C-alpha cells in the first residue's frame, strides 16, 4: 500500500467565520431599518418605497457583490 503525504491543505473557496456571521446579521439589521424608513427619509437617500421593500425582502445570504470577499 502506497502512502501519500500532503504538505499543504486545500483551501476552501469560502470559509465560514464569526465575521461572516456578524456581517450577515448587520446586513439583516440594515435591511429591517431600511424597511421602516418613512417616505421623506427614503426620498433623501434617493430610493422609492418599492425599492426599499424589495431590498428588505431579499434573503440574508443574498449580499451585494462588494460584500463578497
Describe the structure.
With 69 residues, the protein is mostly helical. It has helices spanning 18-36, 39-45, 49-56. α1 (18-36) packs antiparallel against α3 (49-56). The radius of gyration is 20 Å and the shape is elongated.
Strand content: under 5%
* Approximate helicity band: 40-55%
| Mean pLDDT level | 82
Note poorly predicted spans. Answer: none
Radius of gyration over alpha carbons?
20 Å
Gross geometry: elongated
Could you tell me how far the N terminus lies from the C terminus, measured between alpha carbons in angstroms?
41 Å
Number of helices: 3
How many distinct beta strands? 0
Classify the secondary structure makeup into a structural class. Answer: mainly alpha
**How does the major sheet shape up?**
none
Sequence of secondary-structure elements: HHH
Labels describing this entry:
3 helices; 69 residues
How are the elements arranged and paired?
Elements: H1 18-36, H2 39-45, H3 49-56
Helix pairs in contact: 1-3
Give a short synopsis of this structure.
This protein is mainly α and 69 residues long.
Amino acid at each position: 500500500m502506497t502512502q501519500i503525504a500532503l504538505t499543504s491543505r486545500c483551501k476552501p473557496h469560502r470559509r465560514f467565520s464569526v465575521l461572516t456571521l456578524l456581517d450577515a446579521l448587520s446586513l439583516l439589521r440594515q435591511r429591517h431599518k431600511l424597511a421602516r424608513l418613512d417616505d421623506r427619509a427614503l426620498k433623501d437617500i434617493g430610493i422609492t418605497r418599492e425599492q426599499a421593500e424589495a431590498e428588505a425582502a431579499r434573503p440574508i445570504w443574498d449580499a451585494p457583490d462588494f460584500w463578497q470577499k
